[in-house]
Amino acid sequence: MTSRITGTGSCLPAEIITNDDLAQVVDTSDEWISTRTGIRSRRIVKGESGASMAAEAARRALENAGVSAGEIQLIIVATCTGDLQFPGTACVVQKEIQADGAVAFDLGAACSGFLFALNTAHAYIQTGVYQKALVIGTEVLSKLVDWKDRSTCVLFGDGAGAAVVEASEEGLQGFVQYSDGKKGEVLSCISRPVENLIHRKEEGTDYRTPVSDYLTMNGQEVFRFAVKKVPECIHQLLDQTRTRADQVDWYILHQANSRIIQSVAKRMGVDEARFPMNMDRYGNTSAASIPILLDELNREGKLARGQQIVLAGFGAGLTWGAAKLTW
Ligand code: ACO
């Protein structure tokens, strides 16, 4: 027994911010952003929230799978930008979609979040604990970026994507996942610092108490990490599942940056056409990027039953990994 994705859905905020719009507020240009990242526009929330987008993406995924909310036993929401400290976004989604029979919790693994959540749901399903799950990635990165910092604000966007995952004879064949906490400072964002009766925060002592309240990133380190670790772990996964790189129909990677994806394709010796991208329209939506792209491909009719798909995520932690599945 394994787990299979039987339906997908996504939800993007209505508001579109182009590179030219950003050039009005920071010293940048469409040419700089698009040549270095492949990003041309992104969506950012106005009235939407992480939970409202997640719930809408979930409803669309349920409809696509032909599964009712009442049948769902497990909801995992991958997010690093929850609306509330608690309850978790997954519990808010459970209420919104009326999945009263489900257990619901959040999982935080930044841009690897959807992949790690999918693997977690798979482990529950494979061991017979649950049969039907909802796995969601939702992010409102626009509240974590400093809109005065041109080196980060141009990269990110908001959105949500969801997948219904069910017990099946074929589907997910294997996965690999990694973390390297020693490299945490490469990409980090402070939570509310400890300031209580007996302790005040000391600003700037290390990356857990940075001077900035916003997301901070060493872009070149992230780039080097991604172009090395992503092909490495995909190769390992292909060995594990006895698959040649050219037997995979689609490589669906976290949509951080087109240059990272082009470099991975080149290092793997695989035609770039098998690495679909949509960051030109949505920017980097962290845990939401893989399920949003999966849903686009699904709705465009590009995913055929039996096709071989590799998903790969990478991000803060550092965390990274890949999963191989039959569609
Ligand atoms: N517009 C214009 N100029 C800019 C901008 C901007 N938006 N941002 C930075 N610059 C300037 C810098 O100030 C610098 O100027 P200087 O030479 O006068 O000091 C110059 O451009 C070069 O800056 P670098 O940081 O060296 O630029 P680089 O070529 O490395 O590109 C980038 C930056 C695009 C972030 C690159 O490092 C990258 O792609 N890194 C990967 C990071 C990534 O994708 N992060 C996503 C989040 S992490 C994740 O999802 C896994």
Topology:
Layout: E1 2-11, E2 16-18, H1 19-23, H2 30-37, E3 41-43, H3 50-65, E4 74-78, H4 89-97, E5 103-107, H5 113-126, E6 132-140, H6 150-153, E7 158-168, E8 172-179, E9 187-188, E10 216-217, H7 219-240, E11 250-253, H8 258-268, H9 279-282, H10 289-299, E12 308-315, E13 319-326
Parallel strand pairs: 4-5, 4-6, 11-12
Antiparallel strand pairs: 1-7, 2-3, 6-7, 8-13, 9-10, 12-13
Helix pairs in contact: 3-4, 7-8
The site of acetyl coenzyme *A (ACO) has 22 residues, from α2, α6, α7 and β12.
Describe the structure.
32% of the residues lie in helices and 24% in strands. It is built from ten helices and 13 strands. Strand 4, helix 4 and strand 5 form a beta-alpha-beta unit. The radius of gyration is 19 Å and the shape is globular. 49% of the residues are buried. Bound molecules: acetyl coenzyme *A. Acetyl coenzyme *A binds at residues 28, 32-33, 36-37, 111, 150-151, 154-155, 187, 217, 219-220, 222-223, 256-257, 259, 284, 314-315. Acetyl coenzyme *A binds next to helix 2, helix 6, helix 7 and strand 12.
